Amino acid sequence: DVKVTQSSRYLVKRTGEKVFLECVQDMDHENMFWYRQDPGLGLRLIYFSYDVKMKEKGDIPEGYSVSREKKERFSLILESASTNQTSMYLCASSKTGKYYEQYFGPGTRLTVT
Amino acid sequence: GENVEQHPSTLSVQEGDSAVIKCTYSDSASNYFPWYKQELGKGPQLIIDIRSNVGEKKDQRIAVTLNKTAKHFSLHITETQPEDSAVYFCAASRDFSSGSARQLTFGSGTQLTVLP
After folding, report:
1. For residues B36-60, b (16+ Cβ closer than 10 Å) or e, as one string?
2. Which member of A19, A88, B59, B95 has the greatest number of CB atoms within 10 A?
3. Which residues contact B33 (CB under 8 A, 6 or more apart)?
């Protein structure tokens, strides 16, 4: 059974803290994605990766960075968290050749105070 | 870049009635249009998709239609049931046939509530 897991369901951090969100998939997918979900704005792509150590910016990369050292793991990093980064963060993965069929994790609700 | 608009933002229907969600896109090169369903506490899940060489696609109670000339596509759910209650997202993309990763641009979502 296809599975994407995210390290935390809920996270509360203070302004200025460095935040790591972890995502792991067990489907041997080449592509991995990080989105943020905000009411009325849908899902917006932050970064994606199509191979180990490869990354590309999405639509809203400012304030974020990513790391992909292993095929199954894709990390999202907030170098210095700010209150406007309070959001739901969703990780997804897909197979090369079927990039459009994305499998999502349950999400991490991040609150920055 | 691509821009996808989705309407309505909320939709309530009586159980057994039909529901229709509409999306428009801006990039005429987009050729792939998936729909995702997000249940409470879960990530979105692909439920149906359509490609630009097809005008309509059905899968049991759900169907999707595409009008490339007008650049809009719609999700139709017939005989709605309480378990259809969820947030639905449309999306658009181009070059789906390529082997490398490509972006999906999502709409803003529709909260569908099916009233018993």
Report:
1. bbbeeeebbebbbbbebeeeeeeee
2. A19
3. B23, B25, B49, B50, B51, B52, B64, B66, B73, B90, B91, B92, B93
Q: From the candidates B47, B95, B103, which should be mutated to test the interface with A, based on the most A CB atoms within 10 A?
A: B103
Nearest Cβ partner for A50 among B44, B100, B105: B100
Q: Which residues of B touch A48 (CB under 8 A)?
A: 101, 103
Q: Please list the residues that pair with A13 across neighbouring strands.
A: A112
Structure tokens given for A105: 């994790």
Cβ burial, residue A14 (10 Å; 0-12/13-18/19+)? exposed
- pLDDT at residue A76 is higher than 60: yes
For the stretch B60-88, pLDDT in tens is: 999 999 999 999 999 999 999 999 999 99
State the residue for tokens 């899902």.
Answer: A43
Q: How many residues does chain B have?
A: 116
- At A78 the three-state DSSP class reads strand
Task: Check whether A8 has a pLDDT greater than 70.
Answer: yes
Task: Give the CA distances from residue A110 to residues A19, A38, A106, in Å, rounded to whole numbers and listed in that order.
Answer: 10, 11, 13
Contact B101 A105 (CB under 8 A): no
Phi–psi pair at B66, nearest 5 degrees: -135, 130
